[in-house]
């Protein structure tokens, strides 16, 4: 019987997994910004074909969608699970079994979606299961990460796939209530790159290890998007990472009381093309999206 208990000393009973450092005693049922106690909640586990080609491969990415989130963006397309916590509680043993099941179904990787607030439990599971996994493990997050938490995952994660959402901290506060987002995300992606090194592929173009940074272009925010690309080019070696510039923003998931009028429209061709052109000028390699991706039909059923 594998022991998957996460042992903590007294100083670690209060949650400091994400940069919010909320100090909630989640083991005793308290919740912080993420909305979750120490119970692992997942909303969906399945093969998923709507990631980047190097992640989906032929059979699909073995996605595990965790409920709750340390960003809870006002425009989140997974609002049902990030804000409303739709899902079911699973033990660490069940999570291990889910990973093995996805591998047996032919998953190209194990894709941990919004995993930050369960990083301790995930690290415990991965330490015990890693020898049995013959596919990469992907850490698919919002970029608002603590370097100390990422250090716990060193050697357990093959592919980091963070968002880099904002350069302007005023925008980060408006849409995600995330202070110092740009500085925090910068430190996080640097640590991620230190762990994985340059991107590495198999003969079929499937990503085996490395850093793939995503960015979702938002309405009226193209200048911030362009600033992000310039910043990433300054702090990371462009040739050794990949970028994914997403056009899939849709207002379909906004709450009725959202106060930001600019978010009630999709982005324009000009906004998206200007960001993609900037990436090209900076010699980034990676992915763009077709414009029809800005639709709620691509959001999974939870």
Low-pLDDT residue intervals, each spanning 5 or more residues: 5-11
**Whole-Å distance between the termini?**
32 Å
Helix content: 25-40%
What do the pLDDT scores average to?
A: 93
Total count of domains: 1
Main sheet properties: 10 strands, mixed
Shape: globular
Count the strands? Answer: 10
Continuous helix count: 9
Structural class by helix and strand composition? alpha/beta
| Gyration radius from CA atoms, angstroms | 18 Å
Task: State the fourth-level CATH superfamily.
Answer: Aldolase class I
Report the β-strand fraction as a percent range: 15-25%
Instruction: Indicate the CATH topology.
Output: TIM Barrel
CATH architecture: Alpha-Beta Barrel
Walk me through what this model shows.
The chain is an alpha/beta fold. It has a single domain, classed as Aldolase class I (TIM Barrel, Alpha-Beta Barrel), CATH 3.20.20.70. Helices cover 29% and strands 17% of the residues. It has nine helices and ten strands. It has helices at 53-56, 79-82, 92-104, 119-129, 147-152, 169-176, 181-196, 222-235, 269-281; strands spanning 40-48, 61-66, 88-90, 110-113, 137-141, 159-162, 200-201, 207-216, 242-246, 286-288. Strands 1, 2, 3, 4, 5, 6, 7, 8, 9 and 10 form a ten-stranded mixed β-sheet that branches. It starts with 39 loop residues before the first strand and ends in a 14-residue tail after the last strand. Residues 5-11 have low confidence and may be disordered.
């Amino acid at each position: 019987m594998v022991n998957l208990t996460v042992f903590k000393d007294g100083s670690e009973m209060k949650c400091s997994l994400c940069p919010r450092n909320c100090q909630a005693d989640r083991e005793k049922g308290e919740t912080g910004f993420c909305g979750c106690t120490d119970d692992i909640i997942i909303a969906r586990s399945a093969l998923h074909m709507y990631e980047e080609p190097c992640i989906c491969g032929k059979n699909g990415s073995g996605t595990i969608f965790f409920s709750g989130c340390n960003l809870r963006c006002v425009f989140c397309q997974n609002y049902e699970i990030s804000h409303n916590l739709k899902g079911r509680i699973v033990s660490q043993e069940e999570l291990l079994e889910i990973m093995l099941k996805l591998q047996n179904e032919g998953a190209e990787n194990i894709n941990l979606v919004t995993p930050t607030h369960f990083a301790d439990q995930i690290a415990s599971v991965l330490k015990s299961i890693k020898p049995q996994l013959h596919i990469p493990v992907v850490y698919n997050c919002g970029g608002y990460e603590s370097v100390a938490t990422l250090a716990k995952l060193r050697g357990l994660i093959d592919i980091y796939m963070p968002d880099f959402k904002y350069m302007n901290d005023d925008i980060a506060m408006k849409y995600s209530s995330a202070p110092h987002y740009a500085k925090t995300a910068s430190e996080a992606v640097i640590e991620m790159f230190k762990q994985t090194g340059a991107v590495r592929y198999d003969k079929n173009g499937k990503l085996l290890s490395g850093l793939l940074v995503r960015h979702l272009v938002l309405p009226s925010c193209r200048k911030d998007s362009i600033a992000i690309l310039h910043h990433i080019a300054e702090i990371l070696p462009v040739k050794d990472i990949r970028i994914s510039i997403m056009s899939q923003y849709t207002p379909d998931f906004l709450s009725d009381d959202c106060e930001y009028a600019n978010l009630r429209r999709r982005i324009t061709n000009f906004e998206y093309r200007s960001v993609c052109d900037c990436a090209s000028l900076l010699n980034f390699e990676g992915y763009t999206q077709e414009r029809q991706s800005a639709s709620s039909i691509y959001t999974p059923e939870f």
